[in-house]
Q: What sequence folds into this?
């Protein structure tokens, strides 16, 4: 287990300490693996994690400051992906010291990349209705089933898996959470092509795959509670107002192939500006902020004079500011040891509203050009030249993808149900699912 890190309580003191540490440790000639081996155990890669889990126990807003400072210094940032976003905080919450020392260390140092195996074709919004099963065989579990919407599954070393281990218990009680090795026979990852032209998601088939009992996270048949912890971290990370921190462009894990490469090749020279190429308009939009990009486009093509477009750009600004204020409010409340119930769900709903508004106002700004999209990256330069607008792809990509946020990470309807039932105390829909064994419940056809 890593030594406990004694962090200053002041954000300014932390930033000063970080700058000193970067001056002493950053070396662009290190490999990515060597650099992350320094960054991860120091607590700077995942500062929001607890101090006993390779973090510094700071608030999310301070974590954003730290990530931005690393980027502004000109050093390579922390490993990105679902390992740092979801697996590490979940294992820090529920894992044993040995699991933290093994799994979380490999996450903050980028040694292993993770994916999430939760949703199933017949168990999306009703996640507790999952049918992937795990059966004990000595000191191993044998898993069979199908998962879907697996982000980055093709580059993952490990997976957060929930499977049914006790079908005779009620559906929320017979689930166990596992850390699954993706590099074994029986794991079949197949890409799902989206209407954006990309394939960020996959479906994953599990046939007699094995998981050691030491990889059970949070205890046998306690997987629903652990999964809810993961979903809470997911909603907080996906929600509006969380800030915009730079993340490493180097990908973690053994599959992506970035670990042996020179760390300095993934960042611009210190003090240099990043060059925005026309075939990277989507990435440019994320850096500048989609809101700012839309304002600039409206000013440039004259649509900013349209009162409806102006009104919607102000609405977009307002929603983003509300998200930021809610994040600051949550930070202030948590500093006193309290919480704001349902804030992660509210942030997730707000984010869905923001991306839908970005879609609608963005397509009105670009007009008929919004019907054009390069579904193959190789076609992007030709489209840029034909339209004379290298940022069009950022608008069309955002518009095509806007349908996804209201589905992934829990649908908008699920978020509203959680707020209504768990926060406002409204009555739940009548159901006998809670007490009846899962094996006796009707299944989807």
A:
């Amino acid at each position: 287990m890593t030594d406990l890190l004694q962090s200053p309580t002041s954000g300014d003191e932390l930033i000063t300490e970080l700058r000193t540490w970067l001056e002493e440790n950053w070396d662009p000639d290190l490999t990515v693996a060597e650099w992350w081996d320094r960054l991860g155990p120091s607590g700077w890669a995942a500062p929001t994690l607890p101090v006993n889990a390779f973090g510094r126990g700071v608030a999310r807003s301070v974590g954003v400051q730290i990530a931005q400072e690393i980027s502004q210094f000109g050093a390579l940032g922390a490993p990105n992906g679902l390992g740092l976003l979801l697996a590490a905080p979940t294992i820090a919450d529920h894992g044993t010291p040995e699991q933290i020392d093994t799994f979380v260390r490999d996450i903050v140092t980028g040694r292993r990349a993770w994916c999430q195996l939760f949703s199933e074709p017949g168990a999306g919004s009703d996640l507790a209705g999952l049918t992937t099963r795990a059966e004990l065989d000595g000191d191993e579990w044998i898993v069979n089933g199908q998962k879907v919407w697996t982000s980055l599954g093709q580059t993952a070393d490990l997976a957060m898996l929930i499977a049914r281990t006790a079908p005779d218990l009620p559906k929320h009680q017979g689930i166990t959470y596992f850390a699954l090795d993706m590099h074994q026979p029986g794991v079949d990852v197949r890409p799902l092509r989206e209407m954006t032209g990309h394939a960020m998601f996959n479906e994953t088939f599990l046939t007699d795959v094995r998981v050691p009992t030491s990889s059970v996270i949070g205890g046998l048949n306690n997987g629903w509670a652990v999964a809810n912890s993961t979903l809470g971290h997911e909603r907080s990370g996906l929600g509006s107002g969380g800030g915009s921190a730079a993340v490493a462009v180097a990908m973690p894990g053994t599959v992506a192939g970035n670990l042996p490469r020179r760390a300095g090749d993934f960042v611009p020279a210190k003090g240099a500006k990043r060059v925005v190429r026309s075939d990277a308009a989507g990435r440019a939009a994320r850096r500048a902020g989609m809101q700012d990009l839309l304002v600039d486009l409206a000013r440039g093509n004259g649509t900013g004079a349209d009162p409806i477009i102006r009104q919607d750009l102000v609405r977009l600004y307002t929603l983003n500011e509300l998200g930021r204020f809610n994040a600051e409010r949550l930070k202030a409340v948590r500093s006193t040891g309290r919480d704001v119930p349902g804030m992660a769900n509210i942030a997730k709903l707000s984010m869905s509203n923001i991306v839908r508004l970005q879609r609608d106002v963005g397509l009105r700004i670009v007009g008929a050009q919004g019907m054009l999209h390069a579904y193959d990256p190789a076609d992007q330069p030709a489209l840029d030249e034909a339209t004379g607008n290298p940022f069009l792809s950022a608008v069309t990509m955002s518009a095509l993808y806007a349908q996804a946020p209201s589905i992934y990470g829990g649908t908008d309807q699920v978020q509203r149900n959680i707020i209504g039932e768990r926060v406002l105390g409204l009555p739940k829909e009548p159901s006998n699912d809670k007490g009846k064994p899962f094996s006796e419940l009707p299944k989807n056809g």
